[in-house]
Design a protein that fits this description.
It contains 3 helices and 6 strands, in the order E-E-E-H-E-H-E-E-H. It is an alpha+beta fold. The strands form 2 sheets. A 4-stranded mixed beta sheet has the order 1-6-4-5. A two-stranded antiparallel sheet has the order 2-3. It is globular and about 40 Å long. The mean pLDDT is about 90.
């Protein structure tokens, strides 16, 4: 199990600029991913089995959608070598929680089925 305290992730709408061949990471996402990297200590080897991701966020306002934040987190975990590929995520649980020790708390855990093998 890996537990991380991260800054509040950007919305999925704010991850990229442009379309097609001109699509690139947005400055907002680049900054967040760099900032998040200071809180991430990658394991010796990335998780390469199906995993469960648990995310709790400290809500900033009532207009935000919870599900818009998962893509930034998964891509960041892959970028920093915590997970091998975000397509291995078999379970995703997200919630709002006003009592968190950080803006975003993430737990990555190999799925129970994978641990039994």
């Amino acid at each position: 199990m890996i537990k991380l305290h991260l800054p509040y992730p950007p919305s999925g709408w704010d991850l990229y600029d442009g379309w097609g061949a001109k699509r690139r990471l947005s400055p907002t996402y680049k900054k967040w991913r760099t900032d998040a990297g200071y809180f991430i200590k990658a394991p010796a080897a990335p998780i390469d089995k199906p995993f469960a991701l648990y995310v709790a966020l400290r809500r900033q306002n009532m207009r935000q959608d919870l599900d818009n934040r998962s893509k930034a987190i998964l891509d960041c975990l892959q970028h920093y070598g915590v997970i091998k590929n975000d397509n291995l995520c078999e379970r995703l649980t997200m919630c709002w929680d006003s009592e968190l020790p950080a803006e975003c708390v993430v737990i990555v855990q190999v799925c129970e089925e994978g641990m039994a093998a």
